[in-house]
Specification:
2 copies of one chain form a homodimer. The first copy, chain A, is an alpha/beta fold. Among the domains of chain A are: 27-105, Arc Repressor Mutant, subunit A, CATH 1.10.10.10; 113-222, 3-Layer(aba) Sandwich (Rossmann fold), CATH 3.40.50.720. In chain A, helix 2 crosses helix 3 (62-69), helix 2 (36-54) crosses helix 4 and helix 2 (36-54) packs antiparallel against helix 5. Helix content of chain A is 41%, strand content 14%. The structure holds a DNA duplex.
Chain lengths: 275, 275
DNA sequence: CACTGTGAAAGATTTCACAGCA
DNA sequence: TGCTGTGAAATCTTTCACAGTG
């Protein structure tokens, strides 16, 4: 679920409509027409497709791609239909074409420089995360409060003071800020980022950030994820009642050791690099 | 969001219905009746409420709580209505009561031991994350492949080898596994966790895990979050067209330095502890 | 009177199922 | 024939708006 996004107000929406009142997917508002939920999945498809490309797989059917991405094929086809018709009936999709189109749709053709604020464990992990640069998100700036960290290079980039956020972000053309500070400092850091013209924030701090409506915030909250899992544990143990025949045994196909399809996925994406 | 969840099949749903065919919210399936989306938000309300409790605020209205949590008050009231009627009309909610009821609903009255697999930067961050133990998720076991790490304590817990997952998880009664390994190892680690009886997985590796249907997986994927942000940047810069009067200036109330409401939220939740 | 709790409407997302094309 | 692309139905989620209550 979703998942977790945190922006209150909606933009005034200057709906582009054809004169007869029916919204048609013209180039201009094609982007606007894609459901939020589908966008999130497109990013997943992109990763899976990269895996296929690496294994020299050139064509996939909606069914294959759907299984690899963990969704059903109808949903996948509908999602892809939002970005256009790039499949071949009776055959499937060309991996390279689909990658290109999804990248275009997600705006990945241009680079987005990232600033990481809060260089603790998580900040280190983010600064070193191989998946970012390789996917068009170079980490361009690091910030912290700790005087001992100033100038210390982490993942090749020297740490600056949070007071320099406006200057440094402007200089290095930062478009995304990743807030990995403790809760207390998060809103303050966020305000500085907004001042500096950053319009996209990825918030790891356990706080609901207050931002002007033109700023997009996405929140990653570990405690919340845990609690959602906890809810499901609780719900299950509560279902001690009937162990329905069909429910008892696993789906056979589902459990299998290290499935081929994802086995070699994008090695550059290794999550963790030790300091 | 939202967020992002990743479980394919649904359970066969042995719907409890009253004999006349209308589903009534009996204690048994009360949990089942709560929409997935509402569960995620309940966890957020819980955090905000903890903040209020700490500031010695004993009563909140739906409006206050909604603002602090970044949702609208109608949604908040509906969400709370799923867990029961604990408000007082004309007054609001008692903070302590609400905290208790949400905790009960989310199954937080019992502890859930967590195992972290993959002790790199992210693993360190997770092992040291103060928000877990304080919220009923003690980190009880750490695993890695690296021989140099075996027995080394991280956040007070010695690292074990991934081969010992079944034994150690059973011994320490682990219910949640947090996979912070590189992509390659993730499915293998996941399989071992499932073998060990773990039914809840928080997956940070950029892979779609294949699991039996009784296992719940939640995925946190940084690259995907970035790409969603990228999409919104792209959409906006595409909207170079009309700069609608209302859209140009910020919402006044929204932007304000370090809002009171969240200023002192749960200090124990500090995201990052330096090694 | 102020605020909760909730049916019912509106909107968004998912699923179905099949027409249509290579 | 096999698979895509997509209207239409089903389902889930949000919002509205107001009756009901301490």
């Amino acid at each position: 679920m979703r998942d977790g996004d945190a922006h209150g107000a909606e933009e005034p929406a200057s709906e582009q409509q054809s004169s007869d009142g029916v919204t048609i997917p013209e180039p201009q508002d094609r982007a606007k027409a894609i459901p939020e939920a589908a966008v999130a999945r497109l990013a997943v498809y992109l990763r899976v497709l990269s895996g296929f490309a690496e294994q020299e797989v050139h064509t996939v059917s909606s069914e294959e791609l759907a299984v690899a991405a963990g969704v059903n094929s109808a949903k996948l086809r509908k999602d892809l239909s939002y970005i256009g018709s790039y499949g071949t009936r009776g055959v499937g999709y060309e991996v390279a074409v689909l990658i290109g189109q999804i990248e275009r749709t997600l705006g990945l053709t241009q680079q987005h420089s990232v600033a990481v604020i809060g260089i603790g464990n998580l900040g280190h992990a983010l600064a070193n995360y191989g998946g970012f640069p390789s996917r068009g998100f170079p980490v361009a700036a690091l910030f912290d409060l700790d005087p001992d960290l100033m100038g210390v290079p982490v993942g090749g980039i020297p740490v600056d003071h949070v007071d320099d956020i406006p200057r440094v972000c402007a200089e290095r053309d930062v478009t995304i800020g990743a807030i990995a500070t403790p809760a207390k400092g998060a809103q303050d850091v966020c305000d500085r980022l907004v001042q500096a013209g950053v319009r996209c924030v990825l918030n790891f701090a356990p706080v609901v950030l207050q931002v002007p409506e033109e700023v997009e915030v996405r929140k990653v909250d570990l405690a919340v994820e845990m609690q959602i899992l906890s809810f499901h544990v609780a719900r299950r143990s509560q279902e001690t009642s009937e162990s329905t025949a069909s429910g008892a045994e696993a789906d056979g196909a589902a459990q299998s050791k290290t499935r081929d399809v994802n086995a070699g996925v994008n090695p550059v994406d290794g999550m963790v690099v030790r300091p």
